[in-house]
Amino acid sequence: MAYITQRRRSVRSSSVPRRFNRRSPVQVRTRIPQRFSQLKYSRIIFLIALFLTLNWTVGGVLKLLFPAAKPQPQTQIIPISAPATTDTDQTVVYNIKTPPNLAQSQELQMIIDGAVDIAKNQGLPTESLSITLINVSNNSTHTLAGYNNNTLRFPASVAKLFWMVQFFGYAEKGYIPKESPFYTDLSQMMRISDNDSASRIVDAITQTKSGENLDPSELDKWVEKRIQVNQFFEKSGYTGINLTTKNYPITGVGEKPIGRDLQLRENPAYSQGNFVTTDQTARLMYEIYTKQAISPLASTKMAYLLTRDLNPKAWKNIDANSVEGFLGESLPPDIYYGSKVGYTSRSRQEVAFVRTLNDQAIYILAVFGDDPAYAKNERVFPDISRYIFNRLNQTSRKTTPEKVSKLNQL
Fold first, then answer.
1. φ and ψ at residue 10, rounded to 5 degrees
2. Predicted confidence (pLDDT) per residue in 148-190, tens digit
3. What is the pLDDT of residues 204-213, one digit of tens each?
4. How far apart are CA 114 and CA 383, in angstroms?
5. In the chain, what percentage of residues exceed pLDDT 70?
């Protein structure tokens, strides 16, 4: 481009044809000077800077003369539990108001009878045994059968299943502002049944704290908050449920309740310990895995926390695992399995969701053995579980009770 410019500049006026020189010159209009046309750019910039400086100076003086009110420090804990429940207040009630419409199944009942026989043949007290089985493999009809399935029994750590559901219910309603700070406690509570984590979750959903003894008036207020965990489920058809007592041992507390927790436990008017039925436990599991519990998103999160790996490599070398001696030990590893177990020196419990890859068997099984004999016996739960798994895989939807009875005798 520089070369072209240079060539153009070297062209002499004499080389231009004369006919172009003869044309009248172009008339250029003269601009009339305006008011600010002769201002230099530097002066304009100076005026702008001066204006901004004056603006900032005046603003600063006004802030000094009229300072904004200082924020007050937070002196009270922000309540995360719901307000007191009334007949018209539904915000603290579990969202599924009525039990699921499950059909009683004679076919399933025959299978349950066979499971009870397994416990009886191992010399275990069947009056201390409760079983609930829900078959969901048929899309059109979900069926139910059980044994002592409406008897209230001690759930041990299966209570954590209910506490988890209430936590997500409160989180979605905004009573627990942030879910993420509790994720570790939720995971530890559900995956390894950690009692310390469960204690903090109970504190969060009831806005209570464990501690020293309280005088009667203060204890009444404290208990009123703690029993919210019962009210959350009672108004949705979970009749007679009690989940106000924490699981022990707890670090820094010991093997059993002390202080106000002991006051709660020792007063029959307040609580006589935790109690649920296998029907209630299986129902809650059913509502989680049908994505009805709280919301589809919350149900998905809870199902994730319940998922267990049945591959022996995942649990065999862990001392206090939740597979050995329970329903999952005898099942094949290539299935989906979600569960929550409970165990004490006096009882053994579990609720599980089982689904095969081909969907031949999809069911929920809850088994409570509320006697020291079940705590000592590490074979009865795996044996009952495998028996039911085999029956539901071998039994088609058109199988008659007579065929099921023959299978029970195998």
1. -85, -5
2. 999 999 999 999 999 999 999 999 999 998 899 999 999 999 9
3. 999 999 999 9
4. 11
5. 75
| pTM (2 d.p.) | 0.76
In a domain, 199, yes or no: yes
pLDDT tens digits, 109-162: 999 999 999 999 999 999 999 999 999 999 889 999 999 999 999 999 999 999
What is the C-alpha separation between 397 and 138, in angstroms, rounded?
Answer: 8
Domain extent for 268: 103-396
127, part of any domain: yes
| CATH number of the CATH domain containing 225 | 3.40.710.10
261-267 long-range contacts, CB within 8 A, separation 24+: 261/210, 263/213, 263/214, 263/219, 264/223, 264/226
Helices (H), 213-348: 216-226, 228-234, 259-266, 278-289, 296-306, 312-315
Residue 327, token pair as written in the block: 């329903």
Separation of alpha carbons 238 and 50, rounded Å: 74
Mutual orientation of helices 278-289 and 296-306 as an angle, nearest 10°? Answer: 110
Is residue 185, in this structure, part of any structural domain at all?
Answer: yes
Do residues 187 and 179 make contact, with C-beta atoms less than 8 angstroms apart? no
Amino acid (1-letter code) at residue 312: P
